[in-house]
Design brief:
about 220 residues, mainly alpha, Arc Repressor Mutant, subunit A, 2 domains, elongated
């Protein structure tokens, strides 16, 4: 992740193994420290492969700042993990919209959206686990339906379902919101199992994703 631009020469971004002492921040450098903290958190997540192993003390050590300095920006570990993971989730709605763009058939559009969602989760397993599977850190990610539609990209899932019902591709007596939730649950259940049980012989992830999502769609197609 590229650090925020600055008129001063930027210092190299900290890594999980970089424990150099940090000089006292000058006036106006608080934003840079915040960026370095988030970058170090992301590096530790990638290095350890386990959010439970990412402590505020380890992050502060990697950045070279004191724990009190870290707490000026993030009051607790949960808020720190949430913000670091949120940066990945900011890309999710963009990816889903890109997947749906130009796909006229509602069923194929929904399939493309589901595949993009699963790919994102499997490419970012620790961030996904923290945001969507962890009861402590994930509580900060609880959203209302309106927030979900705007931020996570749920609106395009709902729109694809509604378009499919109106076009007769899906059964016309289905509740579009219920169908959209069911499809999301199928995608979430799949990636959660793969992330939680990585040693299972799942086979080719793309084949598995395609099979699960198509079975979910087959349940609502017009007969």
């Amino acid at each position: 992740m590229t650090p925020r631009a600055s008129s001063a020469t930027a210092a190299p971004a900290p890594t999980a193994g970089d424990h150099r002492p940090r000089s006292r921040a000058r006036r106006g450098e608080g934003d840079r420290l915040r960026e370095e903290i988030l970058e170090a958190t992301a590096a530790l997540l990638a290095e350890t492969g386990d959010a439970d192993k990412v402590s505020t003390r380890a992050v502060a050590k990697a950045v070279g700042c004191s724990s009190p300095a870290l707490y000026l920006h993030f009051p607790d570990r949960a808020s720190l993990l949430f913000e670091a993971c949120q940066r990945q989730f900011d890309q999710l709605a963009v990816l889903l919209n890109e997947a749906a763009d130009g796909v006229d058939d509602p069923a194929e559009r929904l399939l493309a959206i589901g595949e993009a969602y699963c790919r994102f989760a499997l490419d970012n397993p620790q961030q996904y686990r923290t945001m969507m599977m962890d009861a402590i850190a994930g509580v900060a990610y609880e959203k209302s339906l309106d927030e979900m539609r705007a931020e996570v990209g749920f609106d395009i899932v709902f729109q694809a379902v509604e378009d499919g019902i109106q076009a007769g591709v899906f059964e016309t007596d289905h509740d579009p919101l219920l169908v959209a939730f069911a499809f999301w649950c199928a995608a979430h259940g799949l990636v959660s199992m793969v992330i939680a049980k990585p040693s299972m012989a799942w086979g080719d992830p793309e084949v598995l994703v395609d099979a699960v999502l198509r079975q979910s769609l087959d349940g609502v197609r017009a007969r």
